[in-house]
Amino acid sequence: MDSGLRTQCVPQYRLLTGSQIREIHRTSLEVLETIGVRVAHEEGARLLEGAGCRAKEGDVFQIPNWLVEEAIGSAPSRITIYSQEGEEAMRLGGRNIHFGLGTDLVTAYDLNTGEMRDSELRDVSNAARVADYCEDIDFVASMALPHDVPTNMMYVECVKAQLENSTKPVFFTAAGREDLSVILELAAAVSGGEKALAERPFLIHYSEPTAPLRHSRGALSKLFLCAERGIPICYTPGDMLGASTPITLAGGVVQANAEALSGIVLHQLKSKGAPIITGFALGPLDMKTGIFAYGAPEFRLTNSAFADLYHYYDLPIWSTVGTDAHALDEQAAMEHAIATLMAALDGSNLIHDAGYLGQGLLSNPATIVMSDEIISFVKRLLRGFEMDRERLAVDAIRRVGPGGDFLSDDHTYEHFRREQWQPKLLNRDDPDTWLSKGGKRYEEVLTDKTLEILATHEPRPLPRSVQDRLDEIVHRAEAELADLHFEA
Amino acid sequence: MSDVLARMAEAVIEGHVEVMEELTQEALDEGLTAKEILDQGLMPGMDHVGVEFKAGNMFVPEVLRSAKAMKESMKIVQPLLTSADIESKGRILIGTVKGDLHDIGKNLVGMMCEGAGFDVKDLGTDVDSDVFLGEIKSWEPHLIGMSALLTTTMRAMGDTVKALEEAGLRDRVKVMVGGAPVTQRFADEIGADGYAANAAAAADLARALIGRA
What we know:
The structure holds 2 protein chains of 2 kinds. By secondary structure, chain A is α/β, with parallel strands linked by helices. Chain A is 47% helix and 14% strand.
C-alpha cells in the first residue's frame, strides 16, 4: 500500500508466478479431462453425466475444462463464519488468515499425570476450553478421538463437548450422513433453528476425497448433505507425495488440485453457490519411516502452491500446520513456528491443526497455548509497519538530538503500544529475574498456563433450554446410531 | 555358495529387476533347485534389505524395487516349488477393514511380507468381517493382517476379531493390526496378537507370530 502520504511496509511472499499458476491449472484440467476421477455415488455420477461428463470404465468420469471453470466461478469467493452466539467471527476469502484446531487425535498427553494415553471425551472439552480462552485461536475442533464413548457416537459427542466448552466456530468431522445430520441438529439447537444456522453458520464440516482421484460414497454423501443445507464444507484431499501422488512436488500439486477441483464441481452441481472451502494437504510420505511428515519443508511448499492457485481462483483456502514431534519440545516449537509463519505468508484463510503434535496422532492442550503465542507473533510480523511523516519521526529525532534519549519523549509514549508486540508467555526476563522466578523452560511455562486456564476459565454456559435440547438429541441418537454401519 | 546365488542376492539388494530372469535361468541351468534359489539367493538378499531399511540406510522405494526384483525371479521359481517347500513358509491374509478405502500402507505390508517369503493374499479395501471369515475357512491362512487409516474405521478391526471368536476360528489364526492411528494399546484392547508400526516391522512381526519363514 503506497498512497504517497502513508504506506504500510509488509512482508510479502508468493511462490508461483502468474504463468506458473496457469501452467499448473491447465495441467490439472488436463488430468480431469483425460484421466478423470472415480465417483462411487449414484447421485454424484448422475450429476456429472447430466452436466456433460464422459463416463469411462463405469464409474470414472472425465470432466471437461469448461465445467471446472464454471464451478470455480459459481463457488463463493467469501464465506462468513459466525461465533456460536451469532457474531461475525471469520471472513474466509482474500488473504484473511484464521487459525484453529484440528480433529481426531487418537492419543493424548495427560498434563496431570505426564502419561500418553488413549484420547477421551474430556480431552475434547479441555481443548475447547483452552482454545476458548486463547485470543488468537479463531476456531475449535475436537483435537481428540474419544475412546470412552460408543464408536458411532464419537463425532456427535465431540461436537456437543465443543458447544458446551467454547463459543468459537466449530470445525468438525463425521463418520457418515447419519451422524452428520445429528450434529447439524445440535448446531441448529444452539443457533435457534435450521434457518438461523444456515444464515449464520458457525460450523464447518471437514471431509475428504480419497487419493488418488477417488470420491468415496461416504464422502460424497456428506458433501451433498452440506451442499443441500448450505452448511460450509471443507472438502480437501490428503495426499502423500510418492505414495498417493507422484513424488515430484509439481506432479503432486497437479493431481491434488485435480482432486480438489473435482470436489468443487460435484459440490456446485449439487447446489450452485453453496459454500465450500478448498485446498489440499500434500506432504511427503517419509521414505525412511513411512509416516506422513507434517513438519517437512516440502509440505510448506505445496501449501504455498495451492494458496497461490486458490488466490488466483479467488476461492477460500484451507491450510495446515503441525509437527512430527511427539513431545512439546524444541522440534515441535520449530516446526510449528515455521509452519505458522509460512501459512500466514501464504494468505491461507482457514488454517487448521494449530496445537497438533506427533504427525497428527497426539494432543497436548499446552501445545494450543504455544500455537496461540506463535500466531500472535506471526500476526505482528505480517502487520509490518506504517510509514508516514509522523512515523518517520524526524521531529522526534530533532527534539532528542545527538546524545539524548527517546525513552521519555512523547513520541515514544504515543507510539510504543502499537509499534511493539508483547509476548504472552515467551521469556524476556533478564537471567537473574528468570532464575528467581524458578528458571522455567518454555514447556513448563506453557504447561503451568494451560493448567491455570483449565482451572479458572469458565466458558459461557449454554442456556438451560438449549443444554436440555442437546442432551435430548444425543440421547435419542445413541439408540438411532447404535447398530449402524457408516458407508465407506 | 554358488556364484550365481551370490549374484542373485546382490541383484535383489540393488533392485536390478531386469537381470533377474536371466540369473534365475542360469541358476536352474546349473542344476540348482527352486528351493535353493529361494533360500540361498533371494531370501538372503531380502533379509539384507530388511536390515538396511531398519537401520535407515535404505528407503521405501528401494525396498520395493528389491521386492520387485525378487518377484521377477519368483515368477519362474514359484511353479517349481514343491508343495512342501511352499508349506514351509506360511500364508498371510491381508485387507483394509470395512468402511476404509485407504490401502497404500496395507499394500506395502503385503509387499514386505512377500519379500520375507510369505504367501500373501490381499483382499483389498472395505473388507467385511464375513469376507475375512470366509477366506480363513477356505484358504486357511496362518495369520491375518488388518489395517485402517481412518480413526472412524479402526474399530472395525475389533469387530473382525470378535467375529472370529464367535465363529470359533480365533485359535486357528494369528491376528496383526496396523495403520497410522493404531497403537499397541489399541491392539491389546481388541485382542490382536500383535501390532506393527510400519511395513518392515509387520514382516518381522509375522515371522515372530507364525515363525515359519
